[in-house]
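pinging the channel bc i need a second pair of eyes. not urgent but kinda urgent?? the chain im working w is below, pasted from the shared doc
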Amino acid sequence: MGSSSRPAPGTWIWVFAIGAAVLQAAIAALMAFVSWPPHAIGVALQVVLLWGAILVLGGLAARRITSLTRTLTQHEHAHLATLDHVGQLEIQNALLTSLAKSVDVGLAFQSLARLVVRLVECDRLGLALLKENGQGFQTYTARVTEEERRNRPRADVEFGVDRTLMGTVVRSREPLLVNDLGKPASDFLDANVLHSAGFRSALIMPLMAKGRAVGTINLVSRRPGAFVSTHIESLTPITEILAVAILAQQWQVSLTKYRTMEVAADITLAVANEINSALQAIIGSSNILEREHPSDPGLQRDLATIVRQAQRIAELLEKMRHATQERLVEAAARVSETQIPTSPEEIEDEPPR
């Protein structure tokens, strides 16, 4: 039998109420027209019936209230999850807007700080970027309150990868919750610095882009145990966007350096060729003068010096050309290693279906 044919829970309440009223009326009629049962027994039956009906109705009402409470709780959880998702989308949209206005990730990070605190309550927000050699971090701090806020984050303490919580997160590529910074403070330098500054708990999130760690984003609080696993889920999409932005900025810097070096190399090679042509003309003229005046020892000596110095300059120019070409090849190799896209097909992770 399908669930659609079952009576609603409220129907049972009315059935019991009507049934109890009918039974009470029947007992009252029986007491009025029949000499048996005695009056005391009839009253007792009515009381028992009344309390039985009350208990049954109370049980049904409690069951109904419990069901409604459970339904309301589920709707409340769904509503909170929706609000959390909407908050994440707002922060992602704001971050993308900031990045669209400026390629300066530092400015975007400063703007991000005020948005993150709406999603996850914290006292400070830190950004640690891996250096080019991958052996250290350059850290930045953004204040999350208006009275402490800076126009842009300033470069703060530099840390090594070893013996730091940030290095641990970069190597493991997994978020790290620290409920009490006092415990790792003796073994990790960054934990010691934070604990000495009065912070008691931290959440360190890796910044991953294209399977590569570019740094961490660090949330700290003056309260112990301020962060939980749900905060990790809320921040993951934000860190992914920020990591891609940082990687894109690094690509842009590398590409700009390469193009600047390419232009400088072209100018250097062109000037070197011009100088070399002039040197060859000087050497040729000196050889002619040397043949035309073989009997002048002083002139022969001066011409030999001119030729020797011109040849030395020509050798230096040749070394400069080789060094410039080698540096240009190295710069091109570094740009190639970063896998900077040069076509729409390279930008797309997957071809459109």
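so The radius of gyration is 41 Å. and The helical segments are 9-33, 39-101, 105-119, 165-172, 189-196, 229-292, 297-337, 344-347. — does that match what u expected or am i reading it wrong
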